[in-house]
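re: ur question from earlier - yeah i can do the single chain one, its not a big deal. heres the input i used so u can compare w yours
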Amino acid sequence: MRVVSSADWRDSIPFETPMIVADVAPGEPTRCFTCGSTAEPKPRTELWVVKHRHPNDHGGFVRFYCADHRPVFAAPVTETVGRSRPAPTRERRAPAARREPIVEKQRETCPNCFVEVTATGECGMCGWAA
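and the output i got, formated as tokens:
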């Protein structure tokens, strides 16, 4: 069985980026994940959707948050400064000596059964002797 990703509304959401739920998945009012199931449903225009990374699922998982519980993510850090010193040079090693390939000896086979005969030269199936 081959597992493939399907076309889903959650695939279009970037990871760790808050977005308004109504823009991504319009529908009925729903609840904030942090507020829990006992809270009143809120309109989708007031909720934020965030797609989190998951260690076992490459597609991640999606959660809805209200404005009070919306997670804040740090901006990605980009390194603009180059290396202060050059990379160390590696010594060139001599290539490893090649080993001679092991040639396997073709063992004798029984002409009747097409089975390898034993070291004594007798077939274990039909009793033929070499």
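The CA atoms of residues 117 and 123 lie 5 Å apart. not sure if urs matches, ping me
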